[in-house]
Each structure stands twice: as C-alpha cells, then as structure tokens.
Task: structure prediction
Amino acid sequence: MTQQLSQSPLRRSSPRHPSTHPPAPRAPRTFQGRLATLLEMIKFRHSVFALPFALAAMVVAAAGWPSLWTLFWIVAACVAARSMAMAYNRLIDRDLDARNPRTRDRALPAGLISDSFTRGFTLISGAMFVLAAGMLNPLCLLLSPLAILVLLGYSHCKHYTHGAHFVLGAALGIAPLGAWIAVRGSFEGLPVFLALGVVLWTAGFDIIYSCLDVEVDRRDGLHSLPARVGIGPALSGAAWLHVVSVICFALFVWEADLSWRAWAALGIVTALLFFEHRQVRPDDLSRVGPAFFTFNAAISIVFFLGVI
Result:
C-alpha cells in the first residue's frame, strides 16, 4: 500500500531549506508504463486470492490434472475476471478515493492514468473473460454474463447495503464453481461447500479491512459493517465468519474424500486465520496492510497445495 500524500503545499527546495517532500509522481507516457501503473493500481499480484481455490475445485472435479487446454483457460478466466472487476471498482470509486487520505494517491485520483485507459482495460478484460468461458464449454459461456453481473455489481453495493462484504465474497466464491463447471460441464453440489467457504472467508477479511475506513465511510454515507456496528463488533463478526468458513472447507474435504494431506493443510489454514485475528484489535489496526493481504493469499495457496 502506498503512503499517504501530504496535504501541505510543496516548498521550493534551497540549500538552506531543503524540501522534505518527495516530488509528485509523473504520469507515464508510454503504453507499457500506463499498463504497469494500472496493474499496480488493481494489485494484479493479488489474483492469487481466488485462483488457488478455483484450481483446487478443478483438480477434484477432474480427479487429477485436467488437460492443459482446460487449465490454461481456467487460469485465463480467473485472471481476466478479477482484472475486469478491480479496474471497474477503481473507476467507479475514483472520486471517493480522492477524498480518502488512505487512497488519494491511487493512480486514478492522482492523475497517473486516465479514465479512458482504465475503461478500455476493463472492456478488454471482460472480453477475455467471455472468450475464456466460451473456450471451456457452452455452459460456462452461458453463465458468463451472470458472473460479470456479480463481479461488477459489488462496486455499487456499498452505496446501498451493509452486506456488500458478502457480495465481494460471492465474486470470489464463483471461481471454484466456475472451475468445476469448466471441467465437468455441469453443476453439482460438492463445490458449493468450497464456494461458500470462500464467500465467508472473503467477507470476513473484507470486514477487517473495512475497519480502516470507518470514519470515511460514515462521512460519505457508504455502507459497511464496521461503519454500522463499530469496529469491535465487526471484528467479532469477522471471526465467526471465518469459523464457519473453516467448517465449509472441512465439509468439502470430507465429501471429496481427500487424503490426510488436505486435512493437514486445513489445519494450517485454521491456524493462519487464528493468528490473523490475533494481529488486529479495535484499538490497533496498524497491522492491516500489505502483509495482511499476503497472509490471506497464503491461506488460499496452502489449501490448494493440500488438495493437490
């Protein structure tokens, strides 16, 4: 996460009074530079959140590794879907981000990339997602508009409902369902346990992250659970969501009849979630930052490794 920009005006530097403020970042002039800035804005590396759960569902559905064709297009669909959703979210929130001290230096409000460039990236990512779905099977293609509706709808939900955290969870939770359908060509009940676990896990850590913006959300009339009930109760609610998410993951492992290695991975996931909640307190949110996201990325990777 980038550092908050100072609100005080820049002073002319001089030998006697050197400036203490770093120079303002300049907008990149090349296409490659703008693309790199946009990928950093949407935290492209965080595609790892939902992807391992999708691959876990894929491996179970195929009773092993599917063809390289199927693997490639599942990965392409997951990456394209998240890129589309994140770019759209940043575009919709650019004015809100500009008023939030924590986010005002993101690329769009800082003027490092244009709205038109972000819109173009969003459209291309959406087209790539539909293409990937079509390359997998007809049912994936048929369901792709519904997936896009969920993925883009999250950006608007925080203006209307305190349940926006669960809509974000659904946006990630459809990944294992989609991967299962990509392999089997039909919908079945087993991946629902995994999908529900992802929904609750995501909603839980999004509630924790939303605690950073309680005052801003209340000022701008945005809906979040911490803004409604307070940080303490919200953190307690997030903990219970993670408890139930572990139960859902356990049901998936049980019903899929996986080996002890999957159970061992689930034990590690449970421990990671426990320590995650030990890092945050109502009066100390200083550890909710980049390391927090890395922590949750590790959870999805560990679970995937246990499944395979």
In short: The first helix runs from residue 31 to 41.
